[in-house]
Amino acid sequence: MVQKKISAFPDGNSFVDYNSTLSKLIIANSEGLIKIFNLDDDSESEPVSIDTLNNVTSLASYENKQIALTTTEGKLELIDLSTNTSKGVLFRSELPLRDTVFINQGNRLLCGGDENKLIIIDLQNSESENKITNITLPDQLVNISYNFAGELSSVSLSNGDVQIYSVVNEQPNLTHTIENIIPRKIHTSMDVVDFNEEHNDELLSTNTEWSSNGQYLLVPTVDNKVQVYDRSDWDNVVKSFNGDGRIVDFKLSSSGSLAILSLNVLKIYNFESGKLIHEDDFEFDEDAYPLNLAWKDNSLFVGSTNGETLHFENVVQTDGRGGDKLLSLFVSDAEDDDDENDDEDEGNNTDDLLRDADDNDQDKQANDEERIARRKRTQENLKLHEEDSLIIDEDDLDDDLGLNSPVSNGFHRSNGHQRKKFKSSSPAVVSSIKLKPYSPGSTPFDSKGASSMDRRYLTMNNIGYAWIVQNKDTGSSNSITVSFFDRSLHNEYHFTDYQNFDLASMNQRGILLGSSSKGFIFYRSHNESSNDRWERKLPLLSGEYITSICITDNQSANNTIVVGTSLGYLRFFNQFGVCINILKTLPIVTLVASSTGNLFMINQVTANVYSYSIIDINQDYKYIQYNAVMPLKDNIPLIKGIFFNELNDPCIVGGEDDTLLVLHSWREPNNAKWVPILNCHQVITEYGSNDSKKNWKCWPLGLINDKLNCLILKNNNNQYPGFPLPLPIELDLELPIRAKHDEDEAEENFLRSLTMGKLVSDSINNDELSVNVDEDEVMERLNQYSILFDKSLLKLFGEACKESKLGKAFSIARLIKTDKALLAASRISERMEFLNLATKIGELRERLVDINDD
């Protein structure tokens, strides 16, 4: 290990931060200056200097975009990395701020300090309109850490507690508190922070640190240790590491090396094995102290209280497989370990991988670093074996899909996966090369946030959502988190993914996951104590892959799981993984199932031509509708939302026109019809009349009664939900029959009450209500439609009479279906002295009485 000094500043407190995106070292000094060093530049060029506020207390940077600083004056300053200039003070507190961190792909900042508040700043709006909210804390905030993989923030408090907040939604939610764990720290510095003398007791680590996969939280303790907690079980300490006296700072590298910095000693541990791999003494000039740590690959930077920065080069050497090679006295042990691991590798087989549990049990069995690495290598070998017949030919694929066409970049690219061309003798493959695995509510991968990680929502519906974090580091695994909009329903949970799942479907009881290329499906219950979990591999043909999976939403254990493939194979399983049927159809685009056992399926007929079918699973897989034309056109995305309403009617929102369609009269053969009941874009943008909402977008989740449950994406150039996830709202249905919004909505009320009344009546007559729906409430709803129907027609009738449009008035009267409403129309006619019209309406009443008598 080589130790160097960087004399960037003559004095003052120097905080270090390594920006991996820029490959630059950022040093912020308390005397009001930042210096940025280009570490890839071999020449001794001068660093970039930026003037900042004095008395810095923390430093954070995000990709190649921004730097944030906090100060004892209670100011939060933002630095623009594209121009290397200050953007000024973003937020001001009455008392000192102590820490800040970027979250949600850099869209928001968390900060806090002596005011007992956690401040959330939304950076997506214009500078003058940054949304600032806060959460009251039980004590002063001393530090904040962020878990990218799990969208969690750990907040260290002055009283020794650590609070865990979920920050995936706009409003952070407290999920757990670890009490009396960190050293109690009370800041007395209100201006210049003198760590060397007056404020030396503040030179004490209270910061927490998350592992790169989001699984573990590292916490400093009062007895100078770093304890490790598994986020799935906060009651138990997984492992512990000793410091050397008072711990000043500690950092975990992406490769799994833990550095613990004490006042004059640096210790390096292998995080997985717990072995000490290096220990060294160091010192600064002028009796100064170390301040904080930053990793760069296998090297460390240490800030100080006298302006200097230490650079420890090659602190950890790697063994070529992503593991740490032990140094100094431990070299012999390291060689012995390598020999043992090599012997174990020879006994590996793919069956071991497929039998591994997917969640926390698996994590606890895999604490040994080499075991995880071996599993990863096995997984990669399995993938290569299974994809041996897949030939990737991007040029040919572009020609086949006609990528110069404005509609060619459609559904097959909507989830962000690499496109592959499958060469096979089967003609079905040719027609399905555009298909990409799709789950309702899924989004493409979004690389924003961390260069070594990528993430996407796997699925989203009324119940909740699941997202995956893809860890690109060698030997690392992915993480899946399942969350719920109603947190009283279930607790959020996560597990490790070793199968590269890219498909999902969730109901109130559990989640179903699928790996499209491997033909692998997995089910687990939301209930942690339940043993209802299983996995199985499907017998895919050469070139075949899973395109969609779904599960019904019955509250009992009688749910059915359906899996569809690119060759049109449709397999049915019960909730316990027993295959109960298999059918063959056209290549399958997507599947969605109702709570009562109806399967809605979209198939690809040919390029840009789609059809749908409805299968009643409970009636011996009877086709209720078969291969009917689907009103879809290639777009990005092809489908924004697909679901059943509580009346058991299929609903879809296409990406082309952003209109919610509901399938009407589908229980009658050859009579199904799609009815548009809401143009989402028009409604949320107020028909273009509100400039502040012109960029708003809608992400549908489900239809409940007369309201679309959805997410509104405000001022977002991306059409997909990101992080943080906005809270769901409800949009009232409004049939798109007018060119612009009109205060006179009688005509829309009439048509909506007629349309929705037919839907409700059809569902009741066919006993197709969802199991969660109260029939009495539905009957009351039907009565309300009837009342609205009459009222809206009478209003239209009265307006026509005022304009003396008697022909129009009589045509409206003929639409009225009740004697009471016709009597009201007759009296309106008489009052306005349209006697002939009143006579005609009287004849309508007589005919209505005769019909009712018959």
TrEMBL record:
One of its GO terms (biological process) is DNA-templated DNA replication. Keywords: Nucleus, Repeat, WD repeat. Residues 745-848 form the WDHD1/CFT4 helical bundle domain. It is found in: Nucleus. Its main location: nucleus. Residues 436-737 form the WDHD1/CFT4 second beta-propeller domain. Residues 334-374, 408-428 are annotated as: Disordered. Residues 334-349 have a biased composition (Acidic residues). Residues 352-374 have a biased composition (Basic and acidic residues). One of its GO terms (cellular component) is nuclear replication fork. It comes from the Eukaryota. Gene3D superfamilies: YVTN repeat-like/Quinoprotein amine dehydrogenase. Pfam families: Ctf4_C, Mcl1_mid. Signal peptide: none annotated. SUPFAM superfamilies: WD40 repeat-like. Residues 414-423 have a biased composition (Basic residues). PANTHER family: WD REPEAT AND HMG-BOX DNA BINDING PROTEIN, WD REPEAT AND HMG-BOX DNA-BINDING PROTEIN 1. This is Uncharacterized protein. It comes from Candida maltosa (strain Xu316). The lineage of its organism: Eukaryota, Fungi, Dikarya, Ascomycota, Saccharomycotina.
